[in-house]
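Researcher: I'd like a candidate sequence for this fold, 403 residues long. If you have to choose between options at a position, lean toward the conservative one.
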């Protein structure tokens, strides 16, 4: 305001022509103006300084804040890292402890398994040795032959024969038995309950009883032999026929061949007898009132099936019924077959089915004119081919005799 007043006064003096006073007041106005601008500059400088200092402080605070944040972040990261490492270390310790315990347990288990394995191997060896010894005993009581050649001279027969015997296990529940008494040849093919060791025990009983019966019997009749054998088995096994009692026993085909009379006796417990007459001889004459045998034959020979009684050698509902004795006349060159069910019941072929008795009959009808050694070879090859990679399910026994 003073500056403005000085400017007006200087203007007034200048208008009145008093230039001296006009210069004076103009000079005063200039001095005040310089003073005003000087204070404004100082104030602006001061404001700028304050602003600079403030911004500087703010930047420092910001830097400190950022630094603190970075430090906090590093601290948090370090804490997480330490926690992670600690957790990982603890997990490693736990896993190591578990693995070590498992290793100890596994090592202990391996030691126990090795010990058990040694025990099992020793037990297996003992059992195997016992079974092999039982096989030697079973082979000792059964004729160790592939045919009946050793009995031909004793019976006065001039015959060809073969025996196909294929046990499923080391010892067999099937057995064949041969004896000669008073120029009569007695041949039996039997299938005991079970196979393996249980069947072998039954076979030993059967062989022992047959030896005793035939030795102590003067007039040999096939059905009487089976009747007496059944009595012995029932008595030895203490069978009473009670419900739930084991029905142990055996199926059997038994023939008595009398070469002088050209007679053939047959009695069967479930298992029949197959007879194929020589193609150049007259038809077979039956001398028993039992129903006529069934006949089968297509391309091969006519096969006669002489039926067996539908009861076992052992306790059954028909235990009091005697076995049927079939007496036949035979001609030279006729062929008979005694067998158990192992061959016909074997699973195999393309569809894994049973071989069946129908196929078995047809096979025998096709090969019966071959010599006995060749028949044995064909039957064995057919069985193995049919079985292919499947397990043998039962013992196999076939006896072929050309009379």
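Model: Candidate sequence:
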């Amino acid at each position: 305001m003073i500056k403005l007043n000085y400017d007006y006064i200087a203007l007034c003096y200048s208008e009145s022509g008093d230039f001296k006073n006009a210069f004076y007041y103009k000079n005063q106005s200039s001095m005040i103006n310089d003073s005003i601008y000087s204070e404004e500059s100082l104030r602006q400088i001061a404001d700028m300084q304050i602003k600079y200092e403030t911004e500087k402080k703010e930047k420092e605070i910001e830097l400190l804040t950022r630094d603190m944040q970075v430090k906090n972040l590093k601290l948090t990261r370090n804490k997480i890292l330490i926690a992670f490492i600690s957790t990982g270390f603890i997990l490693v310790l736990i896993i190591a402890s578990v693995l070590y315990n498992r290793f100890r347990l596994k090592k202990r288990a391996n030691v126990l398994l090795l010990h058990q394995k040694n025990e099992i191997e020793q037990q297996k060896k003992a059992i195997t040795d016992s079974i092999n010894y039982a096989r030697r005993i079973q082979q000792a009581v059964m004729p160790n032959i592939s045919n009946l050649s050793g009995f031909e001279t004793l019976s006065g027969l001039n015959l060809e024969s073969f025996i196909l015997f294929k046990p499923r296990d080391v010892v067999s529940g099937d057995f064949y038995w041969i004896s000669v008494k008073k120029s009569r040849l007695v041949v039996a093919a039997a299938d005991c309950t079970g196979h393996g060791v249980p069947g072998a025990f039954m076979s030993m009983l059967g062989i022992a009883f047959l030896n005793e019966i035939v030795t102590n019997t003067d007039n040999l009749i096939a059905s009487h032999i089976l009747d007496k054998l059944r009595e012995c088995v029932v008595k030895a096994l203490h069978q009473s026929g009670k419900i739930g009692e084991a029905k142990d026993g055996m199926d059997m085909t038994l023939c008595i061949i009398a070469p002088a009379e050209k007679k053939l006796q047959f009695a069967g417990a479930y298992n029949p007898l197959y007879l194929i007459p020589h193609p150049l001889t007259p038809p077979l004459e039956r001398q028993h009132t039992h129903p006529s045998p069934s006949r089968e034959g297509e391309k091969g020979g006519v096969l006669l099936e002489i039926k067996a009684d539908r009861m076992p050698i052992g306790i059954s509902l028909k235990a009091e019924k005697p076995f049927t004795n079939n007496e036949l006349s035979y001609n030279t060159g006729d062929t008979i077959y005694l067998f158990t069910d192992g061959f016909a019941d074997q699973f195999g072929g393309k569809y894994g089915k049973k071989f069946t008795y129908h196929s078995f009959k047809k096979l025998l009808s096709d090969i019966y004119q071959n010599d006995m050694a060749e028949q044995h070879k064909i039957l064995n090859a057919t069985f193995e081919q049919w079985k292919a990679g499947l397990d043998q399910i039962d013992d196999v026994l076939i006896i072929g005799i050309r009379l």
